[in-house]
Amino acid sequence: MWVSVNGQKVELPEGSTIRDAIKISNAPYREGSVLGVIKGKEEFEKHINKYKIRTDKGSIILEMLPDDSAAELVKTWKENYKKFENLHVRWETSSEVAIGPIKTNLKPIKTEFDYREGDVILSLSGFSADSTHIILSKEDHSAVYGVPDINKGVFARISGGRRTLFNLVDRDTIKSVEPLIERKSIINSAAVTNLDTEIEDGNQIFSYVKVSPSEKSPKSVEHFFSLIEKEMVVDYDSNSFAGFFALQGIKKDAEHIDQRKRGTVTLRNSGKGTGKMYIYREDRVSNPAHNVVGYVQQGMELLDIAKKGNSITIISEPGRIMTLSKSQKEVESALKKYPIKQIREGLTDDDAIVVKQEPQYTIEILKEKEVKTFGISKDNLIGIKFSENSPRSSWYFKKITGLIDAPIGSIKIHFAFQGMKVMMFEGDSREAKGLIPENTPEKCVKAGQLGITNMSRRHIGMIGIRFEDSDEYGPTGEPFNGTNIIGQIVEGLPNLEKFKEEDVVYVREAKSE
Q1: Which of 98, 160, 217, 241 is the most buried (most CB within 10 A)?
Q2: 10 Å Cβ neighbour count for 65?
Q3: How far is CA 92 from the centre of its chain?
Q4: Which residues pair with 19 in a beta bridge?
């Protein structure tokens, strides 16, 4: 049997599963993500309600009539619409534009009917099914079109492109006729997460969404990259858009503002929902609070099917250029697939770990075709294992260090004094608002534990670490009830004690064993 996987035709034996189809097609897919399964082209097109006719002068949108009286004519159109491609405007008058001819099995009648502006009619010119045209009505009028004895031959209405209609003249070409896919055309299809679901001949499977990023929004695009590197979960589901809110609160400047057409990806740049990501299922006007991040190039069907709580596999082309946390040598190897020059700075040894890149953003690196990579010794990189018991405090730390959307963060030392066995880092009291007590120590703070002063104390948001155990005070010098423990330094602790005030410390999340 034959199935389609993300538009690629694949032959499989009877009884095959979605897992088999994904494996043989090598389709991008993250385990646990939702998949879309459409029974087949005919089943899919049953739900298509609009078609776009693209001409030399522009496009015209036809919307099928929903009532049963025109069902047979709509069926005829859906079976034959591709035949109108590369044909011409056969004639045009003040009342109508005719396109064709094609052959059908319709039978004409010789009755005059009244038609409205915007009607779309199947006409059998000369009362012959071999000369079937579509008539686009430009005004209210009466005519004998040799239509079938079904709803006066009317099967659709013109819902867009009237200006194009009035500009058409004899011999203008029909370049293409395509279904106009809307969410309501897709939602009756199946959303599947079980890879062992059996598939049938003609099934269409969608496993991922591909997005093309906008060159005009480099900061917002990097935010998007941070999201898709993790599990992309639909946090809000409506007819208009799917919302992804995992990085809500991360502010980005206003960048490219434009219309939010179906398939547009945007980032909220201000207001209560700052940092939220949206992918639009329906057209919306531009909004100054929304940066355009990119556009869906493939897999819109999957976004239409997905519901709140579903995880979606989303990729970008081109993808992210992120050199941080790699060795200088690893970066050199990774950049070979791009025409991008690496300029090593800081510690330039092959095994030095890159902690800064310039330019910072992928879009800018691609434009400049070079990137500076600043390296440090691996021994001076601090690895932190975060506690699951302090989610708010961990989020705060990752946000102010930059770890929330990059593999390496940085933080400046505020206080360090030899022999005191304590070190404190600059916090941000504004970002620290609402840091309720969580994961407060009880009997002892161990050496290497990282703590934050919570909202019960004056110096909220201060970050600190102790280099020796203490059964009296937390890492920021506060009592235990004023201290939230966010994790343990598991890499680089011996070297950290050698750093001085105003030094910048680079941190990363330690990999789980």
Answers
A1: 217
A2: 18
A3: 44
A4: none
- Which 3 state secondary structure label does DSSP give 511? coil
**Per-residue tokens: 299:** 């897999």
How is residue 227 written in tokens? 């999201």
Query: pTM above 0.90?
Result: no
Buried b (16+ CB within 10 A) or exposed e, 80-100: bbeebeebbbbbbeeebbbbb
All structural domains of the chain with their residue ranges: 2-46+185-205, 50-180, 207-316, 328-376, 380-509
Reported as a single tens digit per residue, the pLDDT across 43-84 is: 666 678 899 999 999 999 999 998 889 999 999 999 999 999
- Architecture of 380-509 per CATH? Beta Barrel (2.40)
Query: CA 408, CA 399: separation in Å to the nearest integer?
Result: 12
Q: Which two tokens stand for residue 281?
A: 């299922």
User: Pairing between strand 381-386 and 504-509?
Assistant: parallel
Assigned CATH for 50-180 = 2.40.100.10
Residue position matching structure tokens 């946090």:
235
148 three-state secondary structure: strand
Strand-pair partners of 124:
132
Q: Beta strands of 103-193 (E only): which ranges?
A: 113-115, 119-124, 132-137, 141-143, 154-160, 174-180, 190-192
Amino acid at 67: D
pLDDT tens for each residue of 157-216: 999 999 999 999 999 999 999 988 766 656 556 788 889 989 989 888 999 999 999 999
